[in-house]
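Researcher: Good morning. I'm working through a list of sequences from a screen, and I'd like to move beyond sequence-only analysis. For each chain I'm collecting a predicted structure so we can compare shapes side by side. This is the next one on the list. No need for commentary yet; just the structure.
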Amino acid sequence: AVPQLAMRSEFYTAYTPYQAEMSQGMLQAIFEFQTLVCQLTGLDAANASVYDGASAAAEAMNMLTSARRKNKVLVSAGLHPDVRAVLKTYARFSKTELVEIPLDENGVTDISFIEKNAENAAGLIAAQPNFYGCIEDAGALAEAAHAFGGLFVSYVYPHSLGALARPGDLGADIAVGDGQSLGLPLSYGGPYV
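Model: Good morning. C-alpha cells for this chain:
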C-alpha cells in the first residue's frame, strides 16, 4: 500500500510546503478558492476550509460564543441531524448551551420561538435550504438574531446559491457549508476543499 500511496501527490505534497517554488501554486489555488467563496456567499472573507460542513458549523458556534462572550447558541431543528450532533459534541466540551428551535407548521424555523428564547444568546445557526428542503426566510432569521444582539450563521449548500440569494445579501454574519456538493472527490477521506 505504501508505494501506491506514495505515487499520489496529494499525500506527499504538504498542505503548506515551505519551499517557495513548491508553495506558490498551492497558495494561488487557495487564494482563488477564497475569492470564489466570497463571491458565492456575498461575504468579505473566507478561510481556506475546515474538514467538512459540520466541523465548520461547530467552529462558527465557537466564533459566536467568543465574539459575544455568551455561552448560549440557538440552533434550528432544520439543520441536518448529523450537523446538530457535531454541534452538541463541541458544545458539551466548550460548555456551550444549545437551544434547539423547532420548526413551524410550514417546516421552517419558528421565528417566534427565537424571540422567546433569545436572552443571553450569542447567536443563531440555521440552514438554507433546511434539511427538509424548505426555503427558510434567511433575512428574517438574520434580523431576529441581530434584534437580540446576536450573530447569524447561515449553513448553506454551495450549489443552491446559484438560485437562492447569497447569505451576505440577506444579513448573515457567517456562512458555512460543505464543499462536497461542488463535486469534489472524497480524496481518501481527506478534506473536501
